[in-house]
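Standup notes, structure subgroup. Blocker cleared on the adenosine monophosphate input:
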Amino acid sequence: MKILLIGSGGREHALAWKIARSPLLDKLYCTPGNAGIAMMAECLPFAVEEESAILHWLQAHPVDLVVIGPEGPLVSGLSDRIRQQGIAVFGPSQAAAAIEGSKVFMKELCARHQIPTATYQVFEQAEPALAYLRSQGAPIVVKASGLAAGKGAIVCHTLAEAEQAIQQIMVERAFGTAGDQVVIESCLRGEELSFLALVDGEHVLPLAGSQDHKAVGDGDTGANTGGMGAYSPAPLLTPALEQRIMDEIMYPIVRGMAAEGYPYRGVLYAGLMIDGDEIQVLEFNARFGDPETQPLLLRMRSDLLPLLSACAHGSLHGMQIEWDPRPALCVCMVAGGYPGPYGKGEVIQGLPTVNPQAELQVFHAGTRLQAGEVVTAGGRVLGVTALGSTVAEAQQRAYATVQTIHWSGVYYRHDIGYRAIKREQG
Ligand code: AMP
Ligand code: GLY
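Run returned:
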C-alpha cells in the first residue's frame, strides 16, 4: 500500500514508525513531517493547512490511504475533499469532526444521546456570561467553543480567575473566532482517563487505556499543556469500567452520530473524568491523542495498517488488536517556556540516530534538519517512550535516555507516571 500521512508531531512520528513496520506498506509519504519522520518516510513540503497543494499532489500521486493526524485539517474538512477525489481517508468528515471542533456541538450531541457530561450553559456575550459565573461561583470551567490548540479550556479555581477567562476569550479575543461562543461548565473532580477507539461509522474497537499528564509542572501543577507525558495501560481502567464506557458512552455516541447523518470514521478519543462509579465526558477529540499515541503504539503488536484501512472502508467488524502486556511510558522533552513563548533552532545533542531496541523509541515532535543537524522547531520537541515490565521500569528506562539528550533550554517533568507507579506499588 502507498500511504500519505499528514502532520508533524510526536503522534505522527509514532504513526509513521508503526506504519513503516507493516508488511503491507510499499511507500510512506508524510507532509510536512519532522526530522524523525524523515528517517522512515519521504517528506513533502506542504504544511497541514496547505490543502490545495496537498489535493494537487494527490492527483498526481494517487495513494491507497491518507491518514490525517491533527485536528485542524479534520475540522476544516480536508478528509471530505480527499474522499471526493476517490481516495480512502482515515479520519472523520468535517461534520463528524465537529465533535472536537465545536464544544457547543459536542455538548448538544451529548444531551441528545444522554451521554454523561458536566452541566453547562452557552454564551455569546460577556455580560450574561459574567452574570452566570457569579450565580454559580468557583470552581468552574470556561471554554472557548472552537479549536484553541489545547489552551481553550480554563479551569478556574476562583471567581476572579473565571472573570479573567471571560475577559481573555470574549473581550480580548485571545483565541479569535474560536471564542465566538463560550461554554461555561461545572468543574468535575476525579482522575482523567484517555479512552480511544477505532470507529468505522458503525463498529467500535477500543484501544488500550492510557493517561496523560497535562500540567506543565511536577506534581501536576502549573498551566495545562497538550500533554507532558503519558502511559498505557491506565491502571484505573478495569474490564468492568471499560464495558461501561463502551455501553454508556462509545456506542451511544457512535450510533447517535450515524442516526443523525454524520457517521464517525476514524479514531474517537473520549477524555473522561472518573470519580468512583461516575464517568463523565470532558471532551471528545477526532484524532489520536498526543502523547498518548506514543506509548499506545509501542505496545500495539497487531499491524496498524489493516486497522486504519478498515476504519476508512467500514470493515472493522470482527477485527481485534493484540497488545504487549507490558506498560509503556512517554516523557515529553519540551522547549523551556512551553506552553508559553519559547525559542527554536537549538541544536539537539545526544540524540540516538538509530534507536537501540524496539523497547525504546525517541519520537520526534518539533524537530527539523538544518545543515545536517537536528534542531528544535516546536514546543514539544521529543517523546522518549519505553516499555518495561512495570510502569516503574518503563519510567526508569525512559528517563535514562532523557538524561543523555540535551539542548539549550530543555525542560521536562521528572514524575511522569507517578500515579500509576503508586498504584502499582500498592
Ligand atoms: P477540554 O479542552 O475540554 O478537553 O479540556 C482540557 C482539560 O481541562 C481536560 O483534560 C481537563 O484537565 C480540564 N477540564 C475540562 N473540563 C473540565 C471540567 N468540567 N472539570 C474539570 N476539569 C476539566
Ligand atoms: N494529550 C491530550 C490530547 O491529545 O488532546
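Discussed briefly. Residues 36 and 252 are 39 Å apart (CA to CA).
Next: hand off to the docking folks.
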